[in-house]
Amino acid sequence: MNKLEKIIFWSGLIIISIDNIYWQWWIKLTKEPIVGGDIFTGWSMVGDVIFLVVWIYILIRIYKKVNRKE
User: Fold this and answer.
1) Which of 8, 21, 35, 52 has the most CB atoms around its CB within 10 Å?
2) Contact predicate 45/34, CB 8 Å
3) What is the pLDDT of residues 14-30, one digit of tens each?
């Protein structure tokens, strides 16, 4: 992996971890469903799904690139 790919991988992992911790905190604090909150709408979850799909796509490309070099 080159430096850019490592940055993308680790930053994606950190963002996903922080996001998951935040949503768990939100659920425990408010005792409400995520979509049912007044502050957040379903677009937050759509953004999470889009981010995950893009991040997984990048991981697959990195994996294929590394295996091609070997």
Assistant:
1) 8
2) yes
3) 877 787 777 777 666 76
